Structure formats: structure tokens, C-alpha cells
Recover the amino acids of this structure.
């Protein structure tokens, strides 16, 4: 898997002259979208299968500040996978130094908002996630 | 009409330690929603009538910088109204000093995305906007 | 303590027609600023004392979706306080229903970026936080 | 000059399921930073010369909606240049179709916030901008 690169934008900085901490949650989404595309289960494919995976929780641990125009390299990994829940991990570095570690938890819903058993509905997707742990 | 107050948030500032200029476009939306509610044609009513009014253009002239935790007072006014187009003006002040003047242009569409003649479809709304010029 | 109210803005929603999950981290900051002001230790006072308290970690658990124009009521509480670290809790409700629970962790630094022992440097502030647990 | 590509992110969409109009002002900043770097007068160089060029005005004309995960190609051009003012133009396309045209106006200040005559202070930069019109 190729890590995702986010170049910090000027508008993502704040009065403390660093990247505002809320933006890392957005960088996580960017990296997650890219990760899913790399696995072959991008947004389009998920939509075609009629599955959405909303975020039900996040954690962020800020280790070092970053700022414009730093390039943040983000590695995504599968931390936990079950029939009803997925937990992803994020390791963000700038020039090899860890700046933030984070996680996001997701459930799986069909288009009517009902929970879906991923193992049964999308066994290929489930197996791929399990293997990439 | 009561002016709208936006209190600048920390996350709306940037590395220059001022409110990032892109955020004024968001303050305009907040003030517009409030203005429409005050006229009796809030978001819910518009939706019930099946009309949406997308933004087709904006202009912003930045006069003075603002920053956290300034309170920006925003006065909205109708600059132009025709059967197919609305142009609103925005005058933003902090402690009586003008910090930004701006405008937004809007068209009117029905739920299928087709242009709507506001004068015919919502004569009450049209007359109200015309009078408030 | 009076809870903080954040009215969800149109620009805070996303393609799923709900408030984008990253924005809750910003609502937390708004509520925290308000909480600190209510305790008498607002941003200005902290700055005068030469202390900054950067965010070193956050957690968010999303319970229910919200959307424009919901009013989110946010209660802030002190979860943990030590000489070198503060952890705040956030309980967000819409019409009495919990929509999100969250926490933020902070350290204390002086203007040179060096860690500060809050108990020694600002005993009044420390005691106030301890009492409000 | 190579055009700048902005890939629309999920968090940049809104309830109408399109890119929120305020975000184009941010895309303009991204493209401007890239344009300046390509001219050899990137952010670092400007800072070294002690010059900042705040945004004093913007205009945006929205032609077509975009959404996640569209790739917006942005061409930046010099519309006007004088000793005290710069106006840049932006042409944004998706798959060859114009989605937005825009402009930003800038003045030149030194580190004390005083206006600077660019022609005198940075003749090389001025000449480069004039030639690229």
C-alpha cells in the first residue's frame, strides 16, 4: 500500500501558526478514501454494492505540530474487523517524524440505514480487510 | 431587520493571525439564512414551496482584518431582484468599523433543477424582496 | 455553568446530508472557549498569564446524526486535572437526545513552549478546575 | 505553466450533494500558492524578501456544480499588475468544462504592514508578473 500525502494548506493553519487540530480528522478521511481505492473497494464500488460505512468514533493523539507547507505522509492500517465493525489506524509522519497517530471506527449500513453483516453481504471485502490486518 | 452577529472562532483564524478570507463567504451564508428567516421565508418554507436558490456568484471586498474573538455584525440587504435572479448585499462591521462588504447572486430552481420565475411561482416572496430593497 | 449552543450551519453538512463528523471537533473548541470564559479564565486572561494549553488528544463517539439547522447543546466538564494535564468531557444533545460524547486532553506551556506546572504557576486556576470536577 | 489539480474531498461537499461554494475560495489559494512556486516566487522566497500580499478582494462566478471525487483543473493568470496591486484570474474546469471563473486582488505589504512599491522593491518579481500577463 502506498501512503497518502497531504500537503498542509495555508487555510488549514491557525492563529498559533500551526495546522489546526480539527483538520487532521479531514486528512484521515482523505487517506481512508485513498486506502479504500487502493484495495479495490473505492467509494464508487461501495455505492454500487449499496453499502455506506459512517464514522462512529475517532481518536487523535497529537505528537508534534505541523504547518503550511508541510507534507504529511499518512499510513492507513486495519486495526480491527468484525462482521459489524471496522477500526482503522492512521500513522502520520513529516520527514520521518511521527506527528499524529489516530483511529476511526465504522459500522456498515445499507441504503435504508439498516446495519449490514459485512461478512455475509460482501465476503470478498471482508476477507480483504481481514487479510490486510 | 436585526443584523446577524458572527463571533469569530479560533479555528477560523490563520497563520497570519487573522480570520482567513474564505470564511467571510461562510459568514455571508449564515447571515443570509438568518435574513431569510426574519422575512418569513426561511429554509423550511422555501423547501416546502419546492424552491432552491443556489449561489451563482459572490464578491468580497476586504477592508480591515478581523480575528478571534471579534464579533462581526452583518447587515444583509436586497441589491437587485428580478423574476429570475436575486442579488444580496452584505455590510460587515466590528465595533462600528466596516471590515468587509460583499454580495451574492442567486437564481431560483425547482426540485428538478429547472429555473423558476419567482414573480409567478411565489408572488408574495417576490413582492417582499422587492419592497425590502 | 450554562451549556453552549452551536447552531449547525449549512456549510457544515456533507453529501450524506448530515453534519460532517470533523466539525464536532470545532464545536468542542467553541464550547471550551465559552466554558473557560465562564470560569473567569478566558482566552485573554490565559494570554495575560502567558499560558497556552494546546490540544494533545481528542476522542469523539458519534451517537446520532445531526444536520442543518439543528441546535446542539454542549455541556463541558472537567474529567481529569493534574499539575501538567487537563482532560475535558463534552456531552452534546439535540432536543434532549445525546448525539455525541467527546473528550479533549491538554497540556500547559509557557510562551517559550516549555511545560508549565499549573498547580504552582496558576494555583487559582488549578483549584477552580479541581473543584469543578 | 502547469495547471493545478484539486481533487474534491468528501468533507468539501454539502447537503445539496455538491461542493460547497465557499471552498472554491480555498482552491484559489491552493492554485495561487502553486502558481507562485512555479514562477520561482514561492511563499518562502516572498517571506525572505519580507513581503506579504494579502487578499483584498475576490470574485467567483459559479458555472457548473462539482462534487466528490471530481478533479478540478485550475489555470491561474495575471489579469492586472501595477506597482501597488496584483489581480489574478482563475479558470476552473472538470473534464474540459468550465465550472467556475474567479479573480483575487492583492496588495503588497512589508513586515510592518506598510504598503510596498513592488516595482521598486522587487523589480524582478514585478517584471516576471508583467511578462506573464
Amino acid at each position: 500500500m502506498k501512503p497518502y500525502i497531504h500537503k498542509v494548506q495555508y487555510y488549514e493553519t491557525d492563529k498559533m501558526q500551526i495546522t489546526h487540530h480539527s483538520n487532521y480528522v479531514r486528512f484521515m478521511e482523505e487517506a481512508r478514501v485513498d486506502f479504500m481505492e487502493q484495495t479495490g473497494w473505492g467509494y464508487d464500488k461501495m455505492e454500487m454494492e449499496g453499502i455506506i460505512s459512517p464514522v462512529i468514533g475517532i481518536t487523535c493523539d497529537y505528537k508534534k505540530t505541523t504547518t503550511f507547507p508541510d507534507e504529511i505522509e499518512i499510513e492507513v492500517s486495519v486495526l480491527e474487523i468484525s462482521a459489524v465493525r471496522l477500526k482503522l489506524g492512521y500513522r502520520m509522519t513529516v520527514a520521518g517524524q511521527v506527528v499524529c497517530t489516530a483511529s476511526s471506527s465504522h459500522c456498515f449500513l445499507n441504503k435504508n440505514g439498516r446495519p449490514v453483516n459485512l461478512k455475509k453481504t460482501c465476503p470478498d471485502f471482508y476477507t480483504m480487510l481481514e487479510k490486510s490486518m
